[in-house]
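Protein 1 of 2
SEQ + STRUCT:
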Amino acid sequence: MTTFALSLPRAVPRRTLVGVAALTAVVMLWSSFALSTRALEGAGLTMADAAIVRFAVPAVVLSPWIPRTLRTLRTERPTVLALVLLAGLPHFLLFAWGAHLTSAALTGLLVPGTVPVFVTLLLFLCVRRTVSRRRVLALAAIVAGVAASALFTGGPTGAGGIAVLLAAGLVWAAYTLGVARTRLDPVGVIVIVSITSVASALLLAVTGVLPSALLAGTADLSTVGSYALVQGVGTGLLSTACYVVAVKNLGSSLPAAAGALSPVLTAVVAVPLLGESLGLGLGVALALIVTGVAVFALSPATPSGQSTPR
């Protein structure tokens, strides 16, 4: 009797499994971040209040790790540290401002949706890294989606909000490259980002640069508690840790691309939760950007024969 050996499928590397699981959590947590940030006005909280709550929770919870993080910072490169710190108050304020000027669906779409474009651009400018033709087409679809959102959302406020959200995407892309190169572990990243951000937010609130219902004593405590759970624990601790884990296990490009899938969840949930409508323009932008992200993630990073720097 003749027997034939069947080739068994290759086991998925543990690093890949860990990275994909972390990315799945990131998609859901980013969606909740976009939705809760857009709901700030109705909750009676200001951007300063949300920033204080967002960063104070992880700063307090992870305070035992502060000494270890500070020791590691002695060997960190200043430029890398500066990139990592962009994920704190700079990105939060841009994100919240853009959400105020637009909608939850558009906020959840443009920021993560444009990160792959900006990461690719920054890698080309910094290390002259080229990309495959399929990824170029994918990035073109994302750019077309951004253009569609600008064209169909209309109005000067919408255009201004789109510009702010694009700036938030650029800042997050720079942070992504910093995370891929930092000597800090995920906990260390959260610690240093949270401490510097809550200190900066408190300074802006105390000096009156940004208004604060918390410092004025007019904030509703139940609302503050809800934001502490969603943004402090969910975004401040879990999403940051999961994103760092994803980048460490999968590199910078794939997490930047896959994170753009959160707009689908955000847009769908915003309809019943915030009373928003998708509309033709946003639907076209959503289809283009999500398609571009999917093609980007499934395409080879560089032309054949070239190595892929992390």
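Protein 2 of 2
SEQ + STRUCT:
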Amino acid sequence: MIELEGVPELIDPVMVAAFEGWNDAGDAASTAVAHLDREWKGEVFAALDAEDYYDFQVNRPTVWMDDGVRKITWPTTRLSVVRVGGEKPRDLVLVRGIEPSMRWRSFCNELLGFAHELGVELVVILGALLGDTPHTRPVPISGTTSDTDLARRMDLEETKYEGPTGIVGVLQEACTHAGVPAVSLWAAVPHYVSQPPNPKATLALLNRLEDLIDVRIPLGELPEDARAWQVGVDQLAAEDSEVAEYVQTLEEARDTAELPEASGEAIAREFERYLRRRDGGGPSAGDRTRPPMPPKPGGRDERDEKDGDEESSED
């Protein structure tokens, strides 16, 4: 670890992490953390030594000019901290980097060492995957954890995934073994429009994160960017009859699956978010977990909707 500044003293810190690469379809997850860092003017205080974890033939450094002097930026993972104000201020430790090429266990242990030193109370790892989901519908977000108590308390799924995994899955399991509460939030990105950026998926991740850790996140231009992105994809789909027909098939499958919850938890969640933004803050509940939701009317929760490749969200 290369320490760039002294370790700050934090208030109720939560670590939020995302990594470019295999777990970041459409760059949705890494862009979400970059948005938090930009909106709250994060201050970088540490970076991992790139020599320890990256193959520079896979992730090459870049050369740039600074007042006529050539400099090199090495691919790595950096940690920054932001202070979220309000009635109950708290700090977010933002981890933003690239999925390492090697020594994943050491990589996770280094991050967990900092989490321990900073007194991190919860680790939230953001990811994005390709799925059979139409771009015209809300982005499905899956929240998973390996902790039974945490799943019950924060209304999450217990992960049941088996198969190949990325750094998101490895880091979450490392947190579990270290006794650090950890959650993964996954956005499903339409596989037929997977190229970055995907502001709609980024926005959905931030909305779910906002609910999870009970903070109000400034969204800036993201809502407008998400609308513009959808209009652009609509136009592209309309120009290809086969794509348009395929999107309609996905829409029908999605609408049929989600019909039972039309008056249930999804609407309640959106209404709570509206109230928080109107009032300029979060709920007044004593703890920072989500407030209790009304019983579901027998339908499945949106996080249970897994179409096609969406079943590959491991954590």
